User: What shape does this take?
Amino acid sequence: MEPRPAATVVVVRAVGDAGDLEFLLLRRAGSSRFAPGFVVFPGGVLESKDPGLAERWFGDPGQASKACAIRELAEETGLVMTSRGLLEGPGHLPGEAGFPPPDPETVPEIARWVAPEFLPVRFDARFYALVAREDVRPTPDGIEIESAWWGRADDALAGLQTGDVQLMWPTFRTLEALAGCGTVEDVLQLRVEAAPPAPPPPTPR
Assistant: This one.
């Protein structure tokens, strides 16, 4: 099965005098058909409307994947990426009144994950990054996403060890890379190596 195109966005903010990095994390609803209860970054599959959004926002339908990431961010968390930065705007998208679309250069690609063939559900997911102010607050949609919060990469990885957090492989590897970043510029310039997970052992005959 060919992987479905998808897009994800890592949203980073620096907090406090020390400029500690926190990332926007979401927990998928327990009723979701895909990855119920997992902790994820905002994102989803590419939809037929995304090339048109990319044309309208960026003047380039070839930026459909980036448009998908920004659209999913707005739909899942109520946070709208604009030319004035990330704004709170539940129910809105870039390009609407008060939400001028962003320069695509402010949302760089930091990784691309193509799921290996042995997985039953496969995605070809591009990961992007953008910066938020410290005072921006997400509003989870309550449908696909049951909760949203700002958290440290190390804390999410620690939650995986205790069993409090479930992570998909690309999210886990991305958090590992983010844990090594010291500034928001480090995050924007990050390039995560998309090393696939090991295949499952063969089934005994």
User: Anything to note?
Assistant: The chain has a mean pLDDT of 93. The beta strands are 4-15, 20-28, 39-40, 43-45, 79-82, 85-88, 109-114, 123-131, 145-151.
